[in-house]
Amino acid sequence: MKTEEQIQTSAAGLPPLTTTTERKLMAKIDWHIVPCLCVLYLLAFLDRVNISNAAVLGLQKDLDIVTGTKYNTALTIFFVPYVLFEIPSNLLLKKLHPHVWLSLCMFGFGLVMICQGLVSNWGGLVTTRWFLGMFETGMFPGCFYLLSSWYKRSEAQKRFSFFFSSTTLAGAFGGLLASGLGKMAGLRGYNGWRWVFIIEGVITCVVSFAWYFVIPGFPEDVKWLNDDERKYIKAKLAQDLGKAGHDAHIGFREVLDVFKDYKIFIGGLMYFGQVVSAYGYAYFAPTIINTYGYGGMLTTQLYSIPPWAAAFFFSMAIAVLSDKFKHRFAFTLIPMMITIAGYGILLNVHGVAHRNVQYGALFMVTCGTYSAMPVIVCWFAMNLGGHRRRSVGTAWQVGFGNIGGFISTYAFLAKDAPLFRNGYIIGLSFQCFSAACCVLYLIAIWTANKRRERSMAHGNGQPSLLEEEEGLQGDLAVAYRYAY
Questions:
Q1: CATH 1.20.1250.20 correct for 21-476
Q2: Which of 121, 202, 386, 421 has a Cα at 20 to 30 A from 320?
Q3: Major facilitator superfamily (MFS) profile domain: which residues (predicted)?
């Protein structure tokens, strides 16, 4: 006797599942995909932003970069290779397989982190930050590319947000870990900030060896799916996203072809505006909180934890609602409005007497920013059809978006303390810019859908040709419909 779920599967025109149910299959996929990618990116983001914790623990003083913009330059240099190598990294991910490329990059940035704990001057810090950016370049777009290859659009947001929440967990865990490692000051003659880098780098290197065997591949080539499960997943994704085009050649000309679509550029601009706020907070949260006068260095580290933790839960709530209503646009704007309100408070409320109000505004900035970002990335990535357009498009969005890191690293200068008015104005401005780009993207995909509906209505669809070329055309196929 067929189960109710198997009957529904058959009615949906999908291959039968003879050894499991769809619910169990999705749980199996989630277990193989989401946890390992979350740990991977948690460590990547932790190694990227722990310099903010190290700065409060004495890094600037020991390296003689307390005044001027040398510290900001060290933050900025990370983004140069991080932006340049995003697209090549995604192409290598596809060619070398995710478990090889991602684990290799993971070991690389863990090793660099250890070296960062041993630097003795500003030049050494800048050098290690460059190589950190180079090895971390594949983490974020690579993981999103991999995630988008496994789930339907209506299933994706919870997984994307849970993965993206690795950043908020890293922020919270980083503050807690730094407060503990800071107490190791003097051990082996090293100050506390050095141990923050060394211990976290060692952890990353050790995990990278295990993750070589854990990181999954694409649905077409993993070994933990049987033939029935593989056929079912491929058919299910093809119904929602079109043919994957897994074996499509991706060369220089194919990469350039992707950029003939103006929507690709809007996707990068949407994310760009969010990055300015995100890294502005991630790199300078302990510095900002320190001006509120809650206590010493270790107390400041502990006060940096709650806003990150709140952002995690708020982001997941937004993701659940977004998937429930099968809608993305409104769930990009609502968090951005919260962030804008937070910046408004920070710009107008000052002084130690109001420090709790200012601290509360930081919750609004983190909750809003780190909830809008995963929705923007998911919305854009899941509207890209086929391996070719998705691999290039996701890398472009993250790569171009991270140019915002250049701006954020100079947003909060030492001379602007304690008000940091310029930093808050910059964050507020780019939030508004990102919101405008989301509206523009909505108009673009709505226009494309209407144009295709008119074309199909006039008999210009030619389904036989679409079936053959769908994997190469991806979301540019006439039969494809963008999700709002």
A1: yes
A2: 386
A3: 33-452
